[in-house]
Amino acid sequence: MPLNLCEIFYSLQGESTFTGLPCTFIRLAGCNLDCTWCDTLYAKNESTSMPIEKIIDQIKGFGCNLVEITGGEPLLQKETPNLISKLLDLNFQVLLETNGSQSIQNIDTRCIRILDIKCPSSNEPDSFLYENLQYLTKKDEIKFVLGSRQDYEFARTIIMKKLSQRPKTRTHLSPVFGQITPESLAAWILEDKLPARLSLQQHKIIWNPDQRGV
User: How many CB atoms lie within 10 A of CB 34?
Assistant: First the structure.
């Protein structure tokens, strides 16, 4: 079965604990959410059907061992877990970025699952499946994208009540580009001694924030 693909590109990883490393990105098409600050709206509608074998052939062409599968929302497609496992079997290191609205229970645990817990300013704060937290391994990661002080307080509550036993190096607080200054978020984290890390979208600092394929 083919997958609905938006784009494949090679760049530097801009987020997560892998920030700064060369990475090949597989952006799958389609999303079930409508986040106010979404920076990949085009992934909802730009779609090309492509067999898994052809996707893997393209990935091999970049000569990069690190691969991220993202979207849109990649877990809306039934063949995504199959793609992940096939890449892992070929000794690729695979990251999956998901909005957490779909179950990760059956996703290969060799994959590093990055769950994005939506905050109030996204207009999708009720979309996250909290049962997903029980399926996380120590190497999996969690991200909060923050657009306001209210978002920070929302994230802080979840971190302290539900994530206190998680590795703090793998819980990310990322400001919406242009809405919260890094200085403000840094001050809040330090004031609260929050067990999380400040994560900036490095690709938006290096390149034009609206540039695709980076």
Answer: 12
